[in-house]
Design a protein that fits this description.
Layout (H helix, E strand, L loop, with lengths): L4 H10 L15 H5 L19 H11 L9 E3 L8 E9 L2 E8 L5 E8 L7 H19 L5 H14 L6 E5 L2 E7 L5 E7 L8
Antiparallel strand pairs: 1-2, 2-3, 3-4, 4-7, 5-6, 6-7
Helix pairs in contact: 4-5
Length: about 200
């Protein structure tokens, strides 16, 4: 079954003002959504990358999280011939997907995201818990010293701090966590690298 197009499109449009890159889920119709995909201005201007490709990330992630797998990422076509980012996404389930923006040429990760599209009814609590589990697993890939309980608690704190905010960020060393809470339109948790300034002599 394909992910419904309208909720995904609404979520992407809601994120359009944020300074980050967001990819749409692969089964939602690339042609229909790629034109509406928001760009990330600061990423286009020399933002750093993680020193890994999405293939290496997924290999390491799936090895560490066999019960929370991420499927192969699919590239999202960009009609801009001079685009400096490659976007890709992976559908996890009907209301959860991972997305990324990669440096063109090297394929290194500039942002890695998990987006949850809230559902109503009896399955809401379980669906949100699954989303938080994926977000916590993503955090552990970049902060491997954290265990499951610690990362889950940290994600819960960040989601609470960013509740209702279209852009909330929290920096830990050279990593920035971003929360974008657009209510029923979607909740995104992202991990991005930060360029650290050299200290003055």
């Amino acid at each position: 079954m394909k992910t419904p197009l309208i909720p995904i499109l609404a979520a992407l449009l809601a994120f359009s003002a944020l300074p980050r890159a967001l990819a749409d889920p692969p089964d939602a119709g690339h042609g229909a959504l790629s034109n509406d995909m928001p760009k990330a201005p600061y990423l286009l201007n020399g933002a750093p990358t993680f020193d890994m490709t999405v293939v290496k990330f997924r290999e390491a992630y799936n090895s560490q999280n066999p019960n929370l797998p991420i499927n192969e990422f699919r590239s999202i076509p960009d009609k801009e011939p001079n685009a400096v980012l490659t976007r890709a996404a992976s559908k996890i389930n009907e209301n959860l997907y991972a997305s990324t923006a990669l440096e063109k040429g090297t394929g290194k990760i500039k942002t890695m995201q998990v987006t949850y599209l809230p559902i109503q009814g009896n399955e809401e609590k379980a669906a949100r818990a699954t989303a938080i589990s994926y977000m916590a697993a993503l955090m552990r890939e970049f902060e491997p010293a954290l265990n499951v309980e610690q990362s889950t608690a940290r994600v819960a704190e960040l989601l609470e701090a960013g509740k209702g905010a279209q852009f909330y960020q929290h920096q830990v060393g050279a990593i920035r966590y971003v929360v974008s809470d657009n209510g029923e339109k979607g909740l995104t948790f992202a991990v991005e690298p930060v360029k650290l300034a050299l200290s003055e002599p």
